[in-house]
Amino acid sequence: MASTPMDVDEAPPSLTSLNTTPSLNITRTLGVNVPSTTKVSDVISAFRPTKLFHRDDVKEGKPQPHILSIDFDDPGELCMTSESDETIQIYNVKDGRHDKSLMSKKYGVKLAKFTHTSSSIIYASTKQNDAIRYLATHDNSFIRYFDGHEASVTSLALHPGSDNFISCSLDNTVRMWNIGSRQWVAKLLLPGPHIAAWDPSGNVFAVALPASGSVILYDYRNYQKAPFAVFDVMKVKGPAELEAAYRGWTALEFSNDGKHLLLGSRLGGHFLLDAFDGTLKAYLKKPGGTRRLAVGEIEGGSVESSGDCCFSPDGRYILSGAKKDLLVWDTLATPDHNKILETAHVLDDKREAAVVAYNPRYNMLATADQELLFWIPDPHA
What's the pTM? Predict the structure, then answer.
């Protein structure tokens, strides 16, 4: 695995002469029981591409695989990608180093997520069957298979406080699982449930149903009942194109303060919704759409998205990939009379950011298309 140091990743003179990998000197922020040392607002405009990882184990003549998903473990020390060549790659965040490569050639891999234990992960299959797999990363051994889905899994969402998780599938079901048992705990029959997300308390989960143009919210303690809220995206789409209100959805995420719900779209912009009443707070317009298919889309044979936008850990900022550059919106800014919120910052980069993830424990983020890129604030900016 080759990594390319970039402008703000040069080793200090004292390290240059040593046979060591220089640390990225990432500043911890917003960690559990750890005081925040740097506010996100103080550094958000200073993020720069810092280290680029290029897969050098790909056979000559073969294209670089596409990165399908990015995830960080709870302590923020590890970054994981699932890739289209049926591998899982794990990186050390602080040292900016590739740690290990895991194979899943028999079943394929997508939507890889750390559990609350950094040495175990769950991921969805892309061939053989539609089981979800629970893997120990230290020896690449399977702990358990979660069987039940009868079509491709489109979303995995881990409960914020336990190892229970939710899965969505093209079989029109949302299933709830306890990681200690291979049998699902509950099943909801819904029309085209493509993405699920937990609110930060873990008491509420949302499911995005693009076919009906809606996002529905359930009380986790009473999920047997009907959803307690239905957000009609068709009704509150604002200046977005009509098509964006019922297809092309790429991401669903609650802000960590619980006030907002981000609905990502590949069709020219994202929706920032009020998490309590579903009203449109702002439409985050971006230049052009993206090349990847949205979650659950199967036509065209292109690579599927797993999230091209996300919140910063403080819930204030939204970051989004584009065909070039990384776009940043400030949710505290006032949108115009059409509810369009202009970008607060455009972080320069020539590569397309098709997958975006912010480390919840450090002021660093990762973007990817066919190569993984670490970003940290430039202290000289």
Answer: 0.91
